[in-house]
Prior knowledge:
4 helices, eight-stranded antiparallel β-barrel, Lipocalin
Amino acid sequence: MKKIKFLCLAMFLICLTLTGCQDSKMEKYWLLSGGEIEGQKIDDSYLKESFPDGNLPFLIFEDNSDFEAVLINIPVKGKWEATDKGFKVTADKETFELVKEGNKLILDNKDKKVKLEYSATKEKPKLYGQFDEMIGELDGQKEEFIADVSLEETQDMSNAMNLGMFIVPEPKLIIGAGFNKNEWALLRYEYPDNEYKKADKVKLLDDVKATRLIKDGDYIYYVAQKGNDRSIKRVKTDGSSPADVLVKKAGNTEYLQKYNNRFYYKDENNYIVSVDSDFKNPKTVIEDADAYYCYIVDGWMIYQDDKDKERIHARNIVNGIDVRLTESAGFFPTIVEDYLYFTSYADPVKKKDEYNLCRVNLKDYKMHGEVQVFSLKEERSKDKKISDFMIHAYEKPIYISGGSDSSYNIESWNEAGENMDKKGIIVYCSIPELLRIEINFGKEDTISYINVFNSKNNGNRLPMYEK
């Protein structure tokens, strides 16, 4: 009966909105240790009877603000932040707070007569070993693709669609593209202050074109390209050791992403595969499509299928359910709120290098049994000069830049919001630091120069690497 009570209560726990107090220091691991549910006290005997295998519900607070928990039997992923008197957690667009009382963290809802107490522990929770599987099972239950993308996810997706060549792992530090003797390089730019006026230290991390940069722990992971050869590598953020090769031969596109503690990439067979954090235990995710422009959101991989006339699809990475999202060929797919934005040929027959900016409403679908069918009705911009585009999702209103000579306010997206008047430019944005990084390309995919703009819109050119 006690387990049944836990199951009944689990569904509403992540929707609680409470108040509390705590300082900004936080232990990483916490286990359920006490409390009360509808008058039933949670003590040691209760926990032993309800969880005889010792797999206690837990909370995990990562240094990068990631939050992972199993609230009874429901896995939760989100973000945490300090408040005046507590810590607020946002997960699936819902929030709740945990209050510090002595050496305990308290989740309290007097209306529901629920009070859960958590105690810090030095060891990683035993149940955490099942967390990825639990998240996967939860994602695998989703037969409908429903867009649920935050502003930060939109920005991450947009950066990734433009090859993800820069990352801001911490204030006053940029890691990303540069050039060494007119060749692509991965550089570490260290700044003396938050104004990003001039990098006082520039360090060479790797002599390759590095794309799809990911920070995980002490490392930067990336797709390394030298000529026509691609591999997956990692290098320490501080550059204290040479780069390691994790995958000797990667596939025919730049794709690397970490999702639910697994890395996803395209292998030498051009299959989309996933591996664990040690790049072991590979699993095939997509083998029946030639996938490009890949990005996972909420358990679904958005990708362009070259075998389906370059149309954009979404595939559940657990159960394999696949839905087509566009009728036209699509490039650079990026989800903003209810819409999927992409570029497409201005002339679908001739397929010349002229493109429209398009969008489809992701809420415009019907279920035919267990099959989700989108209307695929698209809107098209009037501009035919777009080559690629970038979502400026770090401010309101959100802008879409056309990559050539125009940009659009997303709320009135078919009208020019401003005139950028720049060619050969790719823009990267960073939510935490509100940075805008612009690459100006020269001939044959070489870099002319790179500018970084801070939150005050003050721009400075990134220096060259000089050994």
